[in-house]
Amino acid sequence: MAKHKSPSRGEPQRLRSALLGGCFLLSMILLVVYTSYVVSFSNLTFWRSNQAAPPVPKEEHKITASDPAETRPQKEKLPRNPFCDFSDRRNDYCEMEGDIRIHGNSSSILFVTSSNTNGTNIQESWQLKPHPRKGDARAMARVTEMSVKTLSPHGAPKCAIRSTVPAIVFSTGGYMGNFFHDFTDILIPIFTTSQQFNGEVQFLISEILPIWNDKYQKLLKPLTNYEIIDFNQDHTVRCYPRVIVGLKFHKEMSIEPSRSPYGLSMVDFGRHVRKSFALERDTTIKLGPDQDKKPRILIIARKWTRIFANVDEIVRKAEEMGFEAVVAEAKYDLAEFARIVNSCDVMLGVHGAGLTNLVFLPTNAVVIQVIPLGGLEGISWIDFGLATISMKMHYLQYMISLEESTLTEQFSRGDPVLSDQKEAYRKHGWDRMIELYFFKQGVKLDTQRFSSTLLHALELLRQQ
User: Fold this and answer.
1) How far apart are CA 49 and CA 56, in angstroms?
2) Cβ atoms of 43 and 378 closer than 8 Å
3) Which of 219, 234, 276, 314 could disulfide-link to 104, CB 3.0 to 4.6 Å?
4) Nearest 5 degrees, angle CA 254-CA 248-CA 110?
5) DSSP 100
6) pLDDT digits (tens, 9 = 90+) for 304-314
7) Phi/psi at 110 (nearest 5 deg)?
8) Tell me: the pLDDT tens digits for 150-202?
9) How far apart are CA 327 and CA 297, in angstroms?
Protein backbone atom coordinates (compact mmCIF):
# COMPACT_ATOMS: atom_id res chain seq x y z
CA MET A 1 0.00 0.00 0.00
CA ALA A 2 1.45 3.30 -1.02
CA LYS A 3 2.16 5.77 1.74
CA HIS A 4 1.26 9.41 1.44
CA LYS A 5 4.27 11.59 1.97
CA SER A 6 3.77 14.23 4.67
CA PRO A 7 4.80 17.73 3.69
CA SER A 8 8.00 18.91 5.26
CA ARG A 9 8.05 21.89 7.62
CA GLY A 10 9.73 23.96 4.93
CA GLU A 11 6.91 23.53 2.40
CA PRO A 12 4.25 25.66 4.23
CA GLN A 13 6.89 28.30 4.73
CA ARG A 14 7.73 28.27 1.01
CA LEU A 15 4.00 28.44 0.20
CA ARG A 16 3.55 31.46 2.46
CA SER A 17 6.58 33.13 0.90
CA ALA A 18 5.23 32.48 -2.59
CA LEU A 19 1.84 33.97 -1.64
CA LEU A 20 3.46 37.04 -0.10
CA GLY A 21 5.63 37.48 -3.17
CA GLY A 22 2.61 37.20 -5.43
CA CYS A 23 0.70 39.80 -3.39
CA PHE A 24 3.67 42.15 -3.52
CA LEU A 25 3.98 41.72 -7.31
CA LEU A 26 0.24 42.38 -7.75
CA SER A 27 0.53 45.52 -5.59
CA MET A 28 3.36 46.81 -7.73
CA ILE A 29 1.38 46.18 -10.92
CA LEU A 30 -1.62 48.05 -9.51
CA LEU A 31 0.64 50.89 -8.43
CA VAL A 32 2.10 51.21 -11.91
CA VAL A 33 -1.39 51.22 -13.42
CA TYR A 34 -2.49 53.86 -10.91
CA THR A 35 0.46 56.15 -11.48
CA SER A 36 -0.03 55.99 -15.23
CA TYR A 37 -3.03 58.24 -14.62
CA VAL A 38 -1.14 60.65 -12.40
CA VAL A 39 -0.83 63.93 -14.24
CA SER A 40 -0.99 67.35 -12.65
CA PHE A 41 -4.00 66.11 -10.66
CA SER A 42 -1.81 63.67 -8.72
CA ASN A 43 -3.95 63.59 -5.58
CA LEU A 44 -7.28 63.18 -7.37
CA THR A 45 -8.95 59.95 -6.26
CA PHE A 46 -12.11 59.39 -4.32
CA TRP A 47 -10.31 57.08 -1.96
CA ARG A 48 -7.46 59.46 -1.16
CA SER A 49 -9.91 62.35 -1.04
CA ASN A 50 -11.88 60.64 1.68
CA GLN A 51 -8.73 60.03 3.67
CA ALA A 52 -7.06 63.38 3.09
CA ALA A 53 -9.96 65.79 3.39
CA PRO A 54 -11.02 67.06 6.82
CA PRO A 55 -14.70 66.74 7.73
CA VAL A 56 -16.40 69.49 5.76
CA PRO A 57 -19.95 70.73 6.36
CA LYS A 58 -22.26 70.93 3.37
CA GLU A 59 -21.41 74.53 2.49
CA GLU A 60 -18.15 75.60 4.09
CA HIS A 61 -15.61 74.77 6.70
CA LYS A 62 -13.05 76.93 8.46
CA ILE A 63 -9.81 75.36 9.64
CA THR A 64 -7.08 76.91 11.75
CA ALA A 65 -3.80 75.61 13.05
CA SER A 66 -1.19 76.59 15.57
CA ASP A 67 2.25 77.74 14.53
CA PRO A 68 4.55 74.89 13.50
CA ALA A 69 7.23 74.15 16.03
CA GLU A 70 10.49 75.82 15.16
CA THR A 71 13.53 73.58 15.17
CA ARG A 72 17.09 74.48 14.33
CA PRO A 73 18.78 71.28 13.19
CA GLN A 74 22.52 71.18 12.73
CA LYS A 75 23.89 70.22 9.32
CA GLU A 76 24.42 66.47 9.43
CA LYS A 77 27.48 64.75 8.08
CA LEU A 78 26.81 62.78 4.92
CA PRO A 79 26.46 59.04 5.64
CA ARG A 80 28.43 58.41 2.43
CA ASN A 81 30.24 60.71 0.07
CA PRO A 82 28.69 60.97 -2.44
CA PHE A 83 25.32 60.19 -0.87
CA CYS A 84 22.36 59.34 -3.12
CA ASP A 85 18.89 58.64 -1.75
CA PHE A 86 16.25 57.02 -3.98
CA SER A 87 13.85 56.03 -1.20
CA ASP A 88 11.52 59.03 -1.26
CA ARG A 89 8.30 58.54 -3.23
CA ARG A 90 8.47 62.01 -4.77
CA ASN A 91 12.12 62.82 -5.44
CA ASP A 92 15.58 61.34 -5.91
CA TYR A 93 18.45 63.25 -4.34
CA CYS A 94 22.26 63.24 -4.28
CA GLU A 95 24.68 65.29 -2.21
CA MET A 96 28.46 65.29 -2.21
CA GLU A 97 31.45 67.26 -0.92
CA GLY A 98 34.95 67.35 -2.36
CA ASP A 99 36.21 67.70 -5.91
CA ILE A 100 33.06 67.76 -8.05
CA ARG A 101 33.11 68.52 -11.77
CA ILE A 102 29.95 69.23 -13.74
CA HIS A 103 29.55 69.11 -17.50
CA GLY A 104 25.96 70.13 -18.12
CA ASN A 105 25.78 69.46 -21.84
CA SER A 106 26.58 65.78 -21.26
CA SER A 107 24.36 65.64 -18.11
CA SER A 108 27.33 64.52 -16.01
CA ILE A 109 28.17 65.23 -12.38
CA LEU A 110 31.59 63.74 -11.64
CA PHE A 111 32.93 63.11 -8.13
CA VAL A 112 36.72 62.85 -8.27
CA THR A 113 38.06 60.54 -5.60
CA SER A 114 40.58 57.83 -4.87
CA SER A 115 40.01 54.30 -3.67
CA ASN A 116 40.93 55.15 -0.07
CA THR A 117 38.72 58.23 0.33
CA ASN A 118 35.90 57.48 2.81
CA GLY A 119 35.72 53.96 1.49
CA THR A 120 34.26 55.13 -1.82
CA ASN A 121 34.78 52.70 -4.68
CA ILE A 122 36.04 53.86 -8.03
CA GLN A 123 33.56 53.89 -10.93
CA GLU A 124 30.35 53.99 -8.92
CA SER A 125 27.47 55.64 -10.76
CA TRP A 126 23.85 56.67 -10.21
CA GLN A 127 21.19 57.98 -12.58
CA LEU A 128 18.45 60.36 -11.49
CA LYS A 129 16.02 62.97 -12.74
CA PRO A 130 16.20 65.93 -10.32
CA HIS A 131 12.53 66.92 -10.29
CA PRO A 132 9.95 66.16 -7.56
CA ARG A 133 7.30 64.42 -9.67
CA LYS A 134 8.82 60.97 -9.38
CA GLY A 135 6.33 58.33 -10.45
CA ASP A 136 4.53 60.70 -12.81
CA ALA A 137 5.65 59.39 -16.18
CA ARG A 138 4.16 62.29 -18.13
CA ALA A 139 5.92 64.92 -16.05
CA MET A 140 9.24 63.09 -15.83
CA ALA A 141 9.37 62.57 -19.59
CA ARG A 142 10.16 66.29 -19.73
CA VAL A 143 13.12 66.00 -17.34
CA THR A 144 16.73 65.25 -18.36
CA GLU A 145 18.27 62.21 -16.71
CA MET A 146 21.64 62.98 -15.14
CA SER A 147 24.45 60.71 -14.09
CA VAL A 148 26.44 61.02 -10.89
CA LYS A 149 29.72 59.15 -11.15
CA THR A 150 32.82 58.63 -9.09
CA LEU A 151 36.12 58.39 -10.94
CA SER A 152 39.82 58.67 -10.35
CA PRO A 153 41.73 61.94 -10.93
CA HIS A 154 43.46 60.71 -14.08
CA GLY A 155 40.09 60.12 -15.80
CA ALA A 156 38.49 63.43 -14.82
CA PRO A 157 38.07 66.37 -17.24
CA LYS A 158 39.97 69.52 -16.38
CA CYS A 159 38.17 72.38 -14.68
CA ALA A 160 37.48 75.38 -16.90
CA ILE A 161 35.86 77.34 -14.06
CA ARG A 162 36.49 76.56 -10.41
CA SER A 163 33.98 77.90 -7.90
CA THR A 164 34.43 78.33 -4.16
CA VAL A 165 30.69 78.12 -3.45
CA PRO A 166 28.34 75.11 -3.62
CA ALA A 167 25.96 74.33 -6.46
CA ILE A 168 22.39 73.06 -6.62
CA VAL A 169 21.35 71.18 -9.76
CA PHE A 170 17.66 70.72 -10.54
CA SER A 171 15.12 70.69 -13.37
CA THR A 172 12.17 72.98 -14.05
CA GLY A 173 10.71 70.39 -16.44
CA GLY A 174 7.58 68.47 -15.53
CA TYR A 175 4.61 70.81 -15.67
CA MET A 176 6.65 74.00 -16.01
CA GLY A 177 4.42 76.93 -16.91
CA ASN A 178 1.53 75.80 -14.72
CA PHE A 179 1.46 78.40 -11.94
CA PHE A 180 0.67 75.89 -9.20
CA HIS A 181 3.39 73.46 -10.26
CA ASP A 182 5.96 76.23 -10.63
CA PHE A 183 5.50 76.98 -6.93
CA THR A 184 4.89 73.56 -5.39
CA ASP A 185 7.47 71.67 -7.49
CA ILE A 186 10.23 74.28 -7.84
CA LEU A 187 9.99 77.62 -6.04
CA ILE A 188 9.11 76.31 -2.59
CA PRO A 189 11.64 73.41 -2.65
CA ILE A 190 14.48 75.60 -3.94
CA PHE A 191 13.71 78.11 -1.18
CA THR A 192 14.09 75.48 1.54
CA THR A 193 17.11 73.84 -0.11
CA SER A 194 19.08 77.06 -0.69
CA GLN A 195 18.40 79.00 2.53
CA GLN A 196 21.26 77.30 4.33
CA PHE A 197 23.72 79.01 1.98
CA ASN A 198 22.51 82.60 2.46
CA GLY A 199 22.93 83.39 -1.24
CA GLU A 200 26.40 81.83 -1.52
CA VAL A 201 25.29 79.09 -3.90
CA GLN A 202 24.91 78.74 -7.66
CA PHE A 203 21.94 77.21 -9.47
CA LEU A 204 22.39 74.96 -12.49
CA ILE A 205 18.92 74.47 -13.93
CA SER A 206 17.90 71.91 -16.52
CA GLU A 207 14.99 72.58 -18.91
CA ILE A 208 14.94 76.25 -17.93
CA LEU A 209 13.40 78.70 -20.41
CA PRO A 210 14.08 82.46 -20.55
CA ILE A 211 10.37 83.24 -20.12
CA TRP A 212 10.25 81.14 -16.92
CA ASN A 213 13.44 82.72 -15.57
CA ASP A 214 12.15 86.22 -16.30
CA LYS A 215 8.80 85.55 -14.65
CA TYR A 216 10.31 84.31 -11.38
CA GLN A 217 13.60 86.21 -11.24
CA LYS A 218 12.37 88.32 -8.29
CA LEU A 219 11.92 85.14 -6.25
CA LEU A 220 15.15 83.50 -7.41
CA LYS A 221 17.49 86.48 -7.18
CA PRO A 222 17.48 86.70 -3.34
CA LEU A 223 18.43 83.03 -3.13
CA THR A 224 21.67 83.18 -5.15
CA ASN A 225 24.32 85.82 -5.61
CA TYR A 226 25.50 84.20 -8.83
CA GLU A 227 24.49 83.75 -12.45
CA ILE A 228 21.94 81.01 -13.09
CA ILE A 229 23.41 78.41 -15.47
CA ASP A 230 21.38 76.79 -18.25
CA PHE A 231 22.47 73.24 -17.50
CA ASN A 232 21.54 71.64 -20.83
CA GLN A 233 23.31 74.26 -22.93
CA ASP A 234 26.44 74.56 -20.80
CA HIS A 235 29.58 73.13 -22.46
CA THR A 236 31.89 74.32 -19.68
CA VAL A 237 33.39 71.99 -17.08
CA ARG A 238 32.52 73.69 -13.79
CA CYS A 239 34.05 72.57 -10.51
CA TYR A 240 32.51 72.96 -7.07
CA PRO A 241 33.40 71.98 -3.47
CA ARG A 242 29.87 70.82 -2.71
CA VAL A 243 26.93 69.86 -4.94
CA ILE A 244 23.29 69.00 -4.31
CA VAL A 245 21.43 67.29 -7.16
CA GLY A 246 17.66 67.43 -6.81
CA LEU A 247 15.17 69.24 -4.57
CA LYS A 248 13.55 67.63 -1.56
CA PHE A 249 9.78 67.75 -1.79
CA HIS A 250 7.74 67.87 1.43
CA LYS A 251 4.08 68.11 0.40
CA GLU A 252 1.92 70.12 -1.99
CA MET A 253 2.38 73.87 -1.51
CA SER A 254 3.76 73.31 1.98
CA ILE A 255 6.94 73.02 4.02
CA GLU A 256 7.50 70.67 6.94
CA PRO A 257 9.71 72.61 9.40
CA SER A 258 11.18 69.39 10.81
CA ARG A 259 12.52 68.47 7.33
CA SER A 260 13.90 71.86 6.31
CA PRO A 261 17.17 73.55 7.25
CA TYR A 262 16.74 75.82 10.29
CA GLY A 263 13.10 74.82 10.73
CA LEU A 264 11.80 76.91 7.85
CA SER A 265 8.04 77.09 7.35
CA MET A 266 5.53 78.49 4.89
CA VAL A 267 5.41 81.62 7.05
CA ASP A 268 9.07 82.16 6.15
CA PHE A 269 8.28 81.54 2.49
CA GLY A 270 5.51 84.13 2.67
CA ARG A 271 7.96 86.68 4.05
CA HIS A 272 10.38 85.81 1.25
CA VAL A 273 7.66 86.37 -1.35
CA ARG A 274 6.52 89.71 0.10
CA LYS A 275 10.09 90.97 0.42
CA SER A 276 11.06 89.82 -3.08
CA PHE A 277 8.16 91.72 -4.67
CA ALA A 278 8.39 94.65 -2.21
CA LEU A 279 4.76 94.13 -1.21
CA GLU A 280 3.43 96.70 1.23
CA ARG A 281 1.14 94.75 3.52
CA ASP A 282 2.26 92.11 6.00
CA THR A 283 -1.14 91.79 7.63
CA THR A 284 -4.78 92.39 6.74
CA ILE A 285 -7.20 95.08 7.74
CA LYS A 286 -8.74 94.69 11.20
CA LEU A 287 -12.43 95.46 11.23
CA GLY A 288 -13.79 97.31 14.22
CA PRO A 289 -16.30 99.98 15.31
CA ASP A 290 -13.92 102.81 14.49
CA GLN A 291 -12.70 101.28 11.19
CA ASP A 292 -14.30 102.98 8.19
CA LYS A 293 -12.30 101.22 5.47
CA LYS A 294 -13.94 98.36 3.62
CA PRO A 295 -12.14 95.01 3.36
CA ARG A 296 -11.18 94.15 -0.21
CA ILE A 297 -12.19 90.82 -1.73
CA LEU A 298 -10.35 89.57 -4.80
CA ILE A 299 -12.44 87.39 -7.11
CA ILE A 300 -10.12 85.28 -9.27
CA ALA A 301 -11.75 85.31 -12.70
CA ARG A 302 -10.89 82.41 -14.98
CA LYS A 303 -11.63 82.79 -18.69
CA TRP A 304 -11.68 79.23 -19.97
CA THR A 305 -12.10 76.58 -17.26
CA ARG A 306 -14.01 76.46 -13.97
CA ILE A 307 -15.20 79.99 -14.54
CA PHE A 308 -17.63 81.95 -12.41
CA ALA A 309 -20.64 82.17 -14.72
CA ASN A 310 -22.23 85.00 -12.72
CA VAL A 311 -19.37 87.27 -11.65
CA ASP A 312 -21.54 90.39 -11.66
CA GLU A 313 -23.98 88.81 -9.21
CA ILE A 314 -21.13 87.78 -6.91
CA VAL A 315 -19.72 91.31 -6.99
CA ARG A 316 -23.10 92.83 -6.10
CA LYS A 317 -23.60 90.44 -3.19
CA ALA A 318 -20.08 91.09 -1.85
CA GLU A 319 -20.59 94.86 -2.04
CA GLU A 320 -24.00 94.58 -0.35
CA MET A 321 -22.29 92.85 2.55
CA GLY A 322 -19.65 95.54 2.97
CA PHE A 323 -16.76 94.45 0.77
CA GLU A 324 -14.90 96.36 -1.90
CA ALA A 325 -14.84 93.84 -4.73
CA VAL A 326 -11.92 93.45 -7.15
CA VAL A 327 -12.24 91.12 -10.15
CA ALA A 328 -8.98 90.10 -11.81
CA GLU A 329 -7.25 87.27 -13.63
CA ALA A 330 -3.58 86.52 -13.18
CA LYS A 331 -1.41 88.07 -15.86
CA TYR A 332 2.11 87.42 -17.06
CA ASP A 333 3.31 90.54 -15.22
CA LEU A 334 3.55 88.71 -11.95
CA ALA A 335 4.81 91.69 -9.95
CA GLU A 336 1.77 93.76 -10.92
CA PHE A 337 -0.67 91.01 -10.03
CA ALA A 338 1.17 90.29 -6.77
CA ARG A 339 0.51 93.89 -5.69
CA ILE A 340 -3.20 93.53 -6.49
CA VAL A 341 -3.44 90.33 -4.44
CA ASN A 342 -1.51 91.82 -1.53
CA SER A 343 -3.88 94.79 -1.39
CA CYS A 344 -6.80 92.44 -0.64
CA ASP A 345 -7.99 90.85 2.58
CA VAL A 346 -10.03 88.00 1.11
CA MET A 347 -9.41 85.91 -2.01
CA LEU A 348 -12.18 83.91 -3.67
CA GLY A 349 -11.65 81.39 -6.45
CA VAL A 350 -12.75 78.07 -7.91
CA HIS A 351 -10.26 75.25 -7.32
CA GLY A 352 -7.37 75.70 -9.73
CA ALA A 353 -3.90 77.12 -10.23
CA GLY A 354 -5.14 80.70 -9.77
CA LEU A 355 -5.47 80.07 -6.03
CA THR A 356 -1.68 79.76 -5.90
CA ASN A 357 -1.76 83.57 -5.72
CA LEU A 358 -2.52 83.14 -2.02
CA VAL A 359 1.26 83.35 -1.49
CA PHE A 360 1.00 87.12 -2.08
CA LEU A 361 -1.74 87.71 0.49
CA PRO A 362 -0.96 89.36 3.81
CA THR A 363 -0.99 87.34 7.02
CA ASN A 364 -4.48 86.73 8.49
CA ALA A 365 -6.13 86.97 5.08
CA VAL A 366 -9.09 84.73 4.25
CA VAL A 367 -8.96 82.29 1.34
CA ILE A 368 -12.31 80.98 0.08
CA GLN A 369 -11.95 77.96 -2.19
CA VAL A 370 -15.01 76.98 -4.20
CA ILE A 371 -15.14 73.22 -4.82
CA PRO A 372 -16.94 72.17 -8.04
CA LEU A 373 -18.42 68.75 -8.75
CA GLY A 374 -16.07 65.83 -9.35
CA GLY A 375 -14.94 64.46 -6.01
CA LEU A 376 -12.39 67.25 -5.65
CA GLU A 377 -12.61 67.79 -1.88
CA GLY A 378 -9.40 65.91 -1.12
CA ILE A 379 -7.19 67.45 -3.79
CA SER A 380 -8.58 70.93 -2.98
CA TRP A 381 -7.67 70.56 0.69
CA ILE A 382 -4.23 69.13 -0.06
CA ASP A 383 -3.32 71.73 -2.69
CA PHE A 384 -4.58 74.92 -1.06
CA GLY A 385 -6.21 74.29 2.32
CA LEU A 386 -3.04 73.16 4.05
CA ALA A 387 -0.99 75.90 2.39
CA THR A 388 -3.40 78.61 3.54
CA ILE A 389 -3.30 77.51 7.16
CA SER A 390 0.46 76.99 7.22
CA MET A 391 0.88 80.61 6.09
CA LYS A 392 -1.17 81.86 9.07
CA MET A 393 -4.27 82.62 7.06
CA HIS A 394 -7.89 81.54 7.42
CA TYR A 395 -9.37 78.93 5.12
CA LEU A 396 -13.02 78.63 4.09
CA GLN A 397 -14.17 75.86 1.79
CA TYR A 398 -17.44 76.20 -0.12
CA MET A 399 -18.78 73.08 -1.82
CA ILE A 400 -21.22 73.87 -4.58
CA SER A 401 -24.65 72.27 -4.84
CA LEU A 402 -25.71 70.41 -7.96
CA GLU A 403 -27.68 73.45 -9.15
CA GLU A 404 -24.54 75.60 -9.05
CA SER A 405 -22.65 73.53 -11.65
CA THR A 406 -22.97 74.41 -15.33
CA LEU A 407 -22.76 70.67 -16.07
CA THR A 408 -26.51 70.59 -15.36
CA GLU A 409 -26.89 72.32 -18.74
CA GLN A 410 -25.13 69.39 -20.47
CA PHE A 411 -26.39 66.30 -18.61
CA SER A 412 -29.71 65.05 -17.26
CA ARG A 413 -30.14 64.92 -13.49
CA GLY A 414 -29.98 61.12 -13.42
CA ASP A 415 -26.65 60.93 -15.22
CA PRO A 416 -23.76 59.65 -13.01
CA VAL A 417 -21.74 62.72 -14.05
CA LEU A 418 -24.08 64.68 -11.79
CA SER A 419 -25.48 62.13 -9.37
CA ASP A 420 -22.63 59.68 -8.74
CA GLN A 421 -19.18 60.95 -9.65
CA LYS A 422 -17.44 57.79 -8.47
CA GLU A 423 -19.54 55.77 -10.88
CA ALA A 424 -18.88 58.32 -13.63
CA TYR A 425 -15.11 57.86 -13.25
CA ARG A 426 -15.56 54.09 -13.41
CA LYS A 427 -17.89 54.22 -16.40
CA HIS A 428 -16.25 56.88 -18.57
CA GLY A 429 -12.60 56.67 -17.47
CA TRP A 430 -10.26 59.20 -15.89
CA ASP A 431 -9.32 61.15 -18.99
CA ARG A 432 -12.93 61.79 -19.98
CA MET A 433 -14.02 62.81 -16.47
CA ILE A 434 -11.03 65.02 -15.82
CA GLU A 435 -11.85 66.78 -19.08
CA LEU A 436 -15.43 67.33 -17.89
CA TYR A 437 -14.87 68.28 -14.25
CA PHE A 438 -11.72 70.32 -14.76
CA PHE A 439 -12.10 71.85 -18.21
CA LYS A 440 -15.79 71.91 -19.14
CA GLN A 441 -17.38 72.81 -15.82
CA GLY A 442 -18.25 76.31 -14.70
CA VAL A 443 -19.78 77.54 -11.45
CA LYS A 444 -22.84 79.71 -11.08
CA LEU A 445 -22.83 80.61 -7.40
CA ASP A 446 -26.11 80.80 -5.54
CA THR A 447 -25.29 84.17 -4.01
CA GLN A 448 -27.95 83.82 -1.31
CA ARG A 449 -26.49 80.49 -0.22
CA PHE A 450 -22.97 81.83 -0.53
CA SER A 451 -23.69 84.91 1.61
CA SER A 452 -23.15 82.93 4.83
CA THR A 453 -19.57 82.23 3.71
CA LEU A 454 -18.97 85.93 3.04
CA LEU A 455 -20.39 86.73 6.47
CA HIS A 456 -18.00 84.19 8.01
CA ALA A 457 -15.07 85.89 6.26
CA LEU A 458 -16.08 89.26 7.74
CA GLU A 459 -16.23 87.73 11.21
CA LEU A 460 -12.72 86.36 10.82
CA LEU A 461 -11.40 89.80 9.82
CA ARG A 462 -13.00 91.28 12.94
CA GLN A 463 -11.08 88.77 15.08
CA GLN A 464 -7.63 89.91 13.94
Assistant:
1) 12
2) yes
3) 234
4) 160
5) E
6) 889 999 999 99
7) -110, 125
8) 998 988 999 999 999 999 999 999 999 999 999 999 999 999 999 999 999 99
9) 8
**Measured distance CA(96)–CA(91) in Å, rounded:** 17
Sheet holding 346-350, edge to edge: 62-63, 394-399, 366-371, 346-350, 296-300, 324-328
Do residues 147 and 109 make contact, with C-beta atoms less than 8 angstroms apart? yes
Q: What percent of the chain has pLDDT over 90?
A: 70
Instruction: Give all domains of the chain, ordered by start, each with its CATH number.
Output: 46-66+279-462 (3.40.50), 89-263 (no CATH)
Q: Check residues 435 and 32 and name the one with the higher pLDDT.
A: 435
Residue 300 makes CB contacts below 8 A (sequence gap 6+) with 328, 329, 330, 347, 348, 349, 350, 354, 355, 357
- b/e map 330-357, b = 16+ CB within 10 Å: beeebeebbbbbbbbbbbbbbbbbbbbb
Residues 6+ apart with CB under 8 A from 305: 352, 438, 439, 440, 441
Helix (H) / strand (E) element for 151: namely strand 146-151
User: What are the tens digits of pLDDT across the range 103-127?
Assistant: 999 999 999 987 554 544 556 899 9
| Phi and psi at residue 347, to the nearest 5° | -125, 130
Average pLDDT over the chain reads 85
Task: List helix spans (H) across 321-446.
Answer: 334-342, 377-380, 386-390, 416-419, 421-428, 430-434
Amino acid found at 276: S
CA distance 19 to 30: 17
Packing angle, helices 311-320 and 447-462, rounded to 10: 40
- Rg (the chain; Cα; Å): 26
Q: How many residues does the chain have?
A: 464
Query: How high is the pLDDT of residue 22?
Result: 54
